[in-house]
Fold this sequence. Notes:
Blueprint: H1 2-6, H2 9-15, E1 20-21, H3 23-31, H4 40-57, E2 61-62, H5 64-71, H6 85-90, H7 95-107, H8 112-120
Amino acid sequence: MALAKWLSAPMRDHVFGRVSVSYSVLREAAFDYSRSGMPDHQRWDALRTMIDTALADGRTKITATEYRKVIGARPIPNQADAMPPAAIVRQIGRPDVWSAVLDYIAANPSSRRDVLMRLSE
C-alpha cells in the first residue's frame, strides 16, 4: 500500500524507465526499512534525483547500497559492503570459508587466477 501510494503515473515512468531500480530500493523509499529517519517525500525525491543523475551519466542501474548511502541509512547486516575489508579478509581464516573458497576454485577452474591474485594482495 505504501509503495503504491508513491508510485503515481509520473513516478512509475521514472522508476520503470531506462534506469533499473531494484525492489530493495523501492522498499527503502516506501518503508524506510533501514531507518534513515528521512521523511517519505524526501526519500522519493532522493530516488528521483538519483535516477536523473544516472540517466545523465549514462548509468543503467541504482543499487540499494547506493540509495541507502544517499538517504543516510544504516547498512543492512550481512551485506559484504557493510563489513570492513579487514573483517572480510579475516574470514579466510575460518575453515568453512576456506573450504568454500577451495570448492569454488575446484568447480570453476577459470577462476583460479582471479582467486589467487586476490588472496595474494
